[in-house]
TrEMBL record:
Gene3D superfamilies: Rhodanese-like domain. PROSITE patterns: RHODANESE_3 (PS50206). Transmembrane segments: none annotated. The lineage of its organism: Bacteria, Bacillati, Actinomycetota, Actinomycetes, Mycobacteriales. PANTHER family: FAD-DEPENDENT OXIDOREDUCTASE (PTHR43031), PYRIDINE NUCLEOTIDE-DISULPHIDE OXIDOREDUCTASE (PTHR43031:SF1). It comes from Rhodococcus chondri. This is Rhodanese-like domain-containing protein. Signal peptide: none annotated.
Amino acid sequence: MREVDLAALETALADGAPVIDVRERDEFVQVRVPGVTLIPMSEFVARVEEIPSADTVYVICAVGGRSLQVADYLSGRGVNAVSVAGGTDAWQRSGRPVESGA
């Protein structure tokens, strides 16, 4: 399983790569990395067809546990998926920009 750091995520976002946030809706509304797409882990299997086709799909959660599970699931389906180490919490702690609200 591959994990990427925050710098890799920052580059991926700038390049327009898909980033899937698998936290639950209430977490997403509180704080999120700008430009991510919400597909909560609790809905993921039912919504997996919404994952865009791309060279690499980035998966983020709060700290990295859920995103590792989802990235592993996607990899098993033939998708090149990577988890963001440290997740949204690390992104926010690093002082990078965040969004909030619905």
